[in-house]
Specification:
Strand order of the largest sheet: 1-2
Helix content: over 70%
Largest sheet: 2 strands, antiparallel
Shape: elongated
Oligomer: single chain
Number of domains: 1
Order of helices and strands: EEHHH
Distance between the termini: 55 Å
Radius of gyration: 18 Å
Structural class: mainly alpha
């Protein structure tokens, strides 16, 4: 994965860098998803897709920093957001299942 795949304008691309770039793009794309959901709902809204993109993007970037670069700063930078996103996703599933149970009892 460390073999050079392409050199583009002086930037060397390896398999691990592709994983890192993809993780960064996914992690950044979550904000566009959140912005779209907020505009659609006309209030601040955090859709599950936001958390999924956070988790996948963090884990991909984390794998780049662990296996591709061995950089402790990058590891710490991406490890914490992955845990926070997993926690928030778990809370979202719990709260939505409670809401659905209450809705089914009342309706």
């Amino acid at each position: 994965m460390n073999e050079v795949l392409i050199v583009f304008h002086g930037i060397t691309i390896t398999g691990w860098k592709l994983i890192g770039y993809t993780g960064t793009l996914l992690f950044s794309a979550r904000w566009f998803v959140q912005m779209y959901a907020t505009r659609k709902h006309r209030r601040v809204h955090m859709p599950r897709t936001f958390w999924y993109l956070s988790i996948v993007g963090s884990l991909m970037a984390l794998s780049y920093f662990i296996f591709g670069k061995n950089d402790s700063v990058g590891i710490l930078q991406n490890l914490f957001p992955a845990f926070v996103a997993l926690y928030n996703l778990r809370i979202d599933f719990r709260d939505r299942s409670r809401w659905e149970q209450e809705r089914s009892k009342s309706g």
